[in-house]
Amino acid sequence: xxxxxxxxEAGTALRAVGIHNxxxxxxxxxxxxxxxxxxxxxxxxxxxxxxETECGxxxxxxxxxxxxxxxxxxxxxxxxxxxxxxxxGVLIPxxxxxxxxxxxxxxxxxxxxxxxxxxxxxxxxxxLAREQPAIPAVYATDLSPTALGYARRNAARLGxxxxxxxxxxxxxxxxxxxxxxxxxxxxxxxxxAYAELPAEVSAHEPRLALWxxxxxxxxxxxxxxxxxxxxxxxxxxLCEIGCEQGQAAAAAFSAAGFGPxxxxxxxxxxxxxxxxxWPGARG
Length: 283
Ligand SMILES: C[S@@+](CC[C@H](N)C(=O)[O-])C[C@H]1O[C@@H](n2cnc3c(N)ncnc32)[C@H](O)[C@@H]1O
Known about the structure:
By secondary structure, the protein is α/β, with parallel strands linked by helices. 39% of the residues lie in helices and 17% in strands. It starts with a helix and ends in a 6-residue tail after the last strand.
């Protein structure tokens, strides 16, 4: 089939299942199969595609038409300028989480070690390691061995040094070093909100990465309670939250002895990150 006819057919099929930018996605999928420069249009719209390429394209198209997220079909997602490999079993990093990286970079102090809890694909840890090569040590933990597999491969591909360890929040970490920054994008979707998520998210992305008890705050509260022994005096926790969780999340950190505790907004002006400082001299 000719390139232009194949793209037109695919774009129509994608739009028919509710993917509004179907024509654009069809082009991305074809460029992915061709491993071509995404900035360029296929140069030979009227030329026939070789059968192998068409077959590969149709296989990806079927996956996308079945509702699988585009990033899983393509095998990668962009985060803070990094191309991260993603797929079944790991959360696709979201653009709003880039704001947490901005806040963490501004809060980092020379010499401070960093720990990223609930690291998933390694998005936050790898962005920090890339943007601030002077961080002496970046640790990252996740409960999911599958997610950590992606994180480790992403670090290796990007040539970035992060110590990934598998386990529950701080449990797998050694007692030293203490951290100047603890970052986290934990699961924070309440059971009620989880039931309302689009199928593209709930049927494909891991429930472990999204769902949390106590109105979505169970893991956030544990991070508030369990962080202090792992922080230097003046150390900070930066934790992503849902846009309606600002007050309750801040209260959890205040109750655990943190202060000051701020709630900061993402680029759409919604509450997104709790920034909590552990008392004492600056770390
Ligand atoms: C919302 S995802 C965030 C992934 C990544 N940090 C990002 O921003 O794209 C939450 C991650 O927390 C992990 N997780 C859930 N419960 C955990 C726990 N108790 N301890 C460590 N990791 C946990 C999940 O496996 C998942 O990878």
